[in-house]
């Protein structure tokens, strides 16, 4: 095989990393080099663009250490039997690339993953060496996200956590049966064992930090994971239930969802078509309902179709739940607690906060609520205001056509 220069390797390994969705840089400790010491920052405005919860755009160098792998997972473009062009960075090359891109103001951090070469321990050693060199040799203070290899020695994973802001271990597929069928060399028990080890280290470090300021930080931005959607027969209900269990058991910061994309020379066990991208979007909305709107997992699952277990694609899960459980409405915007207001379709967390603040001073009318939201038409059937009661709408047998978003034909030559 011909020798590749760094530019050619970057082209191959940056493209190979695009299938990993768990690439956000929120939640870490704030560091910068304004005092003249070190290099880099985890602050400021943000090639891979990730978005923090406050809307900031963070640019990360997102690459694989190598796209060679000893595993043969059916869904992976970099699997052992895949006919793709292979490349491999040295640890020093990744360090130099990161520093070079940072100095050009292209990036604010590094997202590093890898196929498994030689062994899990050898690969993890190379990943740790990249993070160690950046932090210790070059005093890099920017964001570092490392993908962890579950089968690696726990001590190597612990070392990685001392240098990384966030670590992640992909559970890959929502069901154990799906993992056994599509990735037989991977084991759900080992994956969750490694995730539990990360959780323990994060909690231990948090406790030590509370007692001793000099205690070293361990993955201050926590851990995340990713699930592939549509590669197996798992329903949206299965995925939501799995995500809720992961959040509860391992205190994850995020669960990412990645719609399966057909790959060249695909295995016969894989579907021929990718799932609708809207399905991925609906799962993220469901995730938001559990994390920020107080919905229980079983309530989100209840919004799915009883026969198929799939969330509707034409309306969001919150509206689907409200239409299915209309006995919970209407909600009085002047009297209802925050928990009930958050269940009203069309009311986001900011709108609810503004309603709670405004109603302390006067009774809210329908026009007042309209000024706080994007679409009052979607909200009207589900609320009571000082001058509004949805009597006719509440009794209407088929409410969905009135509140579902209207389908629009896109303009070919829109300005």
Automatic annotation (TrEMBL):
Mind listing the UniProt keywords for this protein, alphabetically? Iron, Iron-sulfur, Metal-binding, S-adenosyl-L-methionine
The record ties this protein, via InterPro entries, to:
Aldolase_TIM, DNA_rSAM_put, Elp3/MiaA/NifB-like_rSAM, Endo/Exo/Phosphatase_dom_1, rSAM, rSAM_sf, RuvA_2-like
Task: Please name the SMART domains in this protein's record.
Answer: Elp3
Q: Which residue numbers delimit the Elp3/MiaA/NifB-like radical SAM core domain?
A: 59-286
Q: Which cofactor does it need?
A: [4Fe-4S] cluster
Iron-sulfur as a keyword of this entry, yes or no, is yes
Tell me the GO molecular function terms: catalytic activity; iron-sulfur cluster binding; metal ion binding
* Taxonomic lineage: Bacteria, Pseudomonadati, Pseudomonadota, Alphaproteobacteria, Sphingomonadales
Q: Name it.
A: Elp3/MiaA/NifB-like radical SAM core domain-containing protein
Tell me where on the tree of life, at the top rank, the source sits: Bacteria
């Amino acid at each position: 095989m011909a020798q590749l220069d760094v530019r050619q390797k970057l082209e191959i390994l940056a493209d190979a990393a695009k299938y990993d969705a768990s690439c956000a840089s929120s939640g870490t400790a704030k560091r910068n080099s304004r005092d003249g010491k070190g290099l880099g920052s985890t602050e400021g405005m943000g090639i891979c663009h990730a978005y923090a919860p406050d809307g900031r755009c963070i640019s990360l160098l997102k690459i694989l250490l190598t796209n060679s792998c000893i595993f043969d997972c059916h869904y992976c473009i970099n699997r052992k039997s895949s006919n793709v062009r292979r490349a491999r960075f040295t640890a020093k090359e990744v360090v130099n690339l990161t520093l070079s891109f940072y100095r050009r103001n292209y990036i604010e951090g590094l997202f590093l993953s890898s196929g498994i070469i030689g062994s899990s321990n050898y690969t993890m050693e190379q990943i740790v060496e990249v993070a160690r060199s950046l932090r210790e040799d070059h005093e890099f203070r920017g964001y570092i996200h490392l993908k962890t290899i579950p089968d690696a020695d726990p001590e190597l994973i612990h070392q990685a956590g001392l240098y990384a802001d966030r670590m992640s271990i992909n559970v890959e597929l929502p069901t154990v049966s799906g993992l056994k069928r599509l990735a037989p060399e991977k084991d759900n028990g080992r994956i969750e064992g490694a995730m539990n080890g990360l959780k323990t280290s994060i909690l231990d470090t948090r406790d030590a930090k509370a007692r001793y300021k000099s205690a070293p930080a361990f993955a201050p931005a926590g851990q995340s994971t990713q699930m592939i959607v549509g590669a197996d027969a798992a329903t949206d209900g299965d995925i939501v239930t799995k995500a809720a269990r992961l959040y509860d058991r391992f205190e994850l910061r995020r669960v990412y969802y990645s719609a399966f994309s057909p790959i060249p020379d695909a295995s016969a066990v894989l579907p021929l078509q990718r799932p609708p991208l809207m399905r991925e979007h609906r799962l993220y909305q469901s995730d938001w309902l559990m994390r920020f709107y107080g919905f229980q997992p079983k309530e989100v699952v209840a919004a799915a179709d009883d026969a198929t277990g799939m969330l509707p694609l034409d309306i969001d899960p919150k509206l689907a739940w409200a239409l299915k459980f209309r006995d919970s409405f209407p909600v009085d915007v002047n009297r209802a607690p925050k928990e009930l207001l958050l269940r009203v379709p069309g009311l986001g967390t900011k709108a609810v906060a503004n309603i709670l603040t405004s109603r302390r001073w006067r009774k809210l009318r329908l026009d007042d609520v309209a000024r706080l939201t994007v679409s009052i038409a979607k909200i009207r059937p589900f609320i009571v205001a000082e001058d509004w009661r949805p009597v006719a709408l509440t009794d209407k047998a088929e409410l969905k056509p009135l509140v579902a978003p209207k389908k629009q034909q896109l303009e070919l030559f829109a300005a």
